[in-house]
Design brief:
Shape: globular
Number of helices: 6
Strand content: 5-15%
Order of helices and strands: EHHEHHHHEEE
Helix content: 40-55%
Distance between the termini: 8 Å
Low-confidence stretches: none
Structural class: alpha/beta
Mean pLDDT: 95
Number of strands: 5
Strand order of the largest sheet: 2-1-3-5-4
Length: 145
C-alpha cells in the first residue's frame, strides 16, 4: 500500500501565490505529484481555510478558489465530528500544539496518513506515527512510499 500524505492549507495556498516563486514551484510540484500518485488527503477544515484565506487575499479569485475546492473533493476530505475533536484535544495536550494544528494532526491520523505536509510544524517530527514533512525542504521524489 502506498503511504498517503495529508496536505495542510499553506501548501495549497503557496501553489497559487506567486509572491514567493520558489515556494510556489515547490508547492506545485507536491500538488502535482500527489494528484498523479493519488496519495493526497485533506480535511474539510483545510478546504475551508484555503477558501477563506485565498478569497481574503485575492477577492477576485473566488471562482478559481471554488474550482480548486471542488477539485480537491476528489481527495476525500474528512469532516469534523465529536471523535475528531476529542482526538485533537488529546493531541493538543500531548504535543503542546495549537488547537488548529492538533486538529490537522488528528485528521491526518484519522485518515491513516503516514506524512503531514506542512511548514507549520517541525520537519521530521513524529506525532503518533505521523511524520511531518516540510514541502520547502524536501522534494516529493524524496518521500518513500
Amino acid at each position: 500500500m502506498t503511504a498517503t500524505v495529508f496536505v495542510d492549507t499553506n501548501v495549497l495556498i503557496y501553489a497559487l501565490d506567486d509572491a514567493d516563486p520558489k515556494k510556489q514551484q515547490a508547492a506545485r510540484s507536491w500538488r502535482e505529484e500527489l494528484w498523479r500518485s493519488h496519495r493526497g488527503r485533506i480535511s474539510f477544515q483545510v478546504l475551508q481555510e484555503f477558501y477563506v484565506k485565498v478569497t481574503q487575499k485575492w477577492p477576485e479569485a473566488r471562482p478559481q478558489a471554488r474550482a480548486e475546492v471542488r477539485d480537491l473533493l476528489a481527495w476525500r476530505p474528512l469532516a469534523a465530528d465529536a471523535a475528531l475533536l476529542e482526538l485533537a484535544w488529546k493531541i493538543q495536550d500531548r504535543f503542546q500544539l495549537s488547537f488548529w494544528d492538533a486538529l490537522v494532526v488528528a485528521a491526518a491520523n484519522s485518515l491513516s496518513c503516514r506524512y503531514l505536509l506542512t511548514e507549520d510544524l517541525q520537519a521530521d517530527q513524529q506525532l503518533d506515527g505521523l511524520v511531518v514533512v516540510n514541502p520547502f525542504l524536501r522534494d516529493p521524489t524524496q518521500l518513500p512510499a
